[in-house]
Design a protein that fits this description.
three-stranded antiparallel beta sheet, binds fe (ii) ion, Multidrug-efflux Transporter Regulator, Chain: A, Domain 2, 2 domains, elongated, 13 helices, mainly alpha, Hypothetical protein af1432, 3 strands, single chain
Length: 266
């Protein structure tokens, strides 16, 4: 491990970042231009890179400088491939889950796409975006514990059935809890049916006590249900759905997230 000042500096020059990653400065620039790496700009137009951003693309401080093994770029590529294969596996399993629900299939995939776009607009880091996408994909995974009869029932649910349906965030939390790499998204799953006014479930959290990821998923999910349609209900146009979201601002949904959502998906 390097011990000179570069290893401890928080803001790095392009050259220093390249040295730490053992790549060329051009590679660092390519990361910046392709959006893989966040960079600041000095008034003189030079890039400055935060150490924390560099970590996200594969710089691991304690990694020994092994010769003849994978270089950092190859390791970053492997790491990305591995994550993508996790996400692909989850997407495949979700197709089966979505098919059980009254909400049209593809719901979770579309919610994940909307969330991704909103996360990008909010300036989320790569890791934050990935966690938001995973949480959006898996937000309703707990429905696996609820009978298809209840999920597909067209009319009003009985009190007992409603109780069962409202258990799905906690059932989901219990499933996710078993998987190490999904631990960061537990709270987002548990709280995706909280309401901004505190009248949601399971904990009645209100306002900013609700995790940001849950507030984004909630808006995206509401929009998708309105526009993709569920059996026995009308499908709304984009504009009608936006109006509906605005009406839910401050009661069901976070007003700021609603405006960001509308501005992003427009
Ligand atoms: Fe849900």
């Amino acid at each position: 491990m390097k011990t000179d000042h570069t290893t401890r500096k928080e803001i790095l020059r392009t050259r220093e970042a390249a040295e730490l990653l053992k790549v060329t400065t051009q590679t660092i620039k390519n990361y910046i231009y392709s959006g893989k790496l966040n960079a600041l700009k000095t008034p003189g137009g030079h890039h400055r890179i935060r150490r924390s951003d560099l970590k996200e693309i594969g710089f691991i401080e304690d990694l020994p400088g092994e010769e003849g093994t994978l270089n950092r770029e190859e390791m970053y590529q492997l790491y990305k491939d591995l994550l993508n294969s996790y996400v692909d596996t989850i997407k495949a399993l979700l197709k089966a889950l979505d098919a059980r629900d009254a909400i049209t299939s593809g719901h979770s995939l579309r919610v994940a796409e909307y969330c991704n776009a909103v996360g990008q607009r909010l300036g989320f880091s790569t890791i934050e975006r990935r966690n938001l996408e995973l949480a959006a994909l898996l937000h309703d995974v707990g429905k696996i514990g609820i009978s298809e009869y209840i999920l597909g029932k067209p009319g009003k649910l009985t009190e007992q059935e409603l109780f069962m349906v409202q258990k799905h965030p906690e059932i989901g939390e219990g499933i996710i809890d078993e998987v190490e790499f999904l631990k960061p998204i537990i709270a987002a799953i548990r709280h995706h049916h909280e309401r901004f006014d505190g009248r949601g479930y399971p904990d009645g959290l209100a306002g900013y006590d609700i995790p940001l990821a849950s507030r984004i998923i909630s808006a995206a999910e509401t929009y998708d249900v309105l526009t993709a349609g569920i059996p026995y209900k009308d499908v709304l146009s984009k504009e009608q759905a936006f109006d509906e979201l605005r009406r839910s601002s401050g009661n069901q949904l976070d007003p700021e997230i609603v405006s960001t959502f509308v501005a992003t998906i427009h």
